[in-house]
Amino acid sequence: xxxxxxxxxxxxxxxxxxxxxxxxxxxxxxxxxxxxxxxxxxxxxxxxxxxxxxxxxxxxxxxxxxxxxxxxxxxxxxxxxxxxxxxxxxxxxxxxxxxxxxxxxxxxxxxxxxxxxxxxxxxxxxxxxxxxxxxxxxxxxxxxxxxxxxxxxxxxxxxxxxxxxxxxxxxxxxxxxxxxxxxxxxxxxxxxxxxxxxxxxxxxxxxxxxxxx
Length: 213
Description:
- This is TetR/AcrR family transcriptional regulator.
- InterPro entries: Homeodomain-like_sf (IPR009057), HTH-type_TetR-like_transc_reg (IPR050109), HTH_TetR (IPR001647), KstR2_TetR_C (IPR041490), Tet_transcr_reg_TetR-rel_C_sf (IPR036271).
- With 213 residues, this protein is mostly helical.
- The chain has helices spanning 14-31, 38-45, 49-53, 59-78, 88-105, 107-123, 127-157, 165-177, 179-182, 191-208.
- The protein is globular.
């Protein structure tokens, strides 16, 4: 995270080309990385594939930027509630809740984050790709560390009780990240519906930590 180039910085201007990333994320989620093609992304965009190749040399580079955007949204969701006067358990609960909502509201992007990196760790062949994958894995670890940091504070202030913070946080994030596998929004679903589901998930997680939800 401290390198000269922020690993979350996209190769392109997100504001002008976010639709490329969203279309690619939807293709990767629905078809899988190997089956989806640049042609598929272009068709979803209603454009030529030349527009995509103007910014990306390969499907792998496009995948990396989808991952970056998904992680950027994760950080953006949870960091505002990390600090404050509230007990650590309350802040950790808020972080889990925001992450769950981010998963549901950015489903295609987050599905790529959850399902894709491990696959690419073994399929990337160039030194540049391997360097990028290492950066992206570091970003994911940094994200997990945010939750560990607050959980340790909870152990110290007595609002969280667990024998192993690292395992507890991994289990909790795994439960939330699994939304990318089983969750699909209903046609009539509202923000309130997603908040209710997020609350139920977080309540179960916090009960496992012997802490108030």
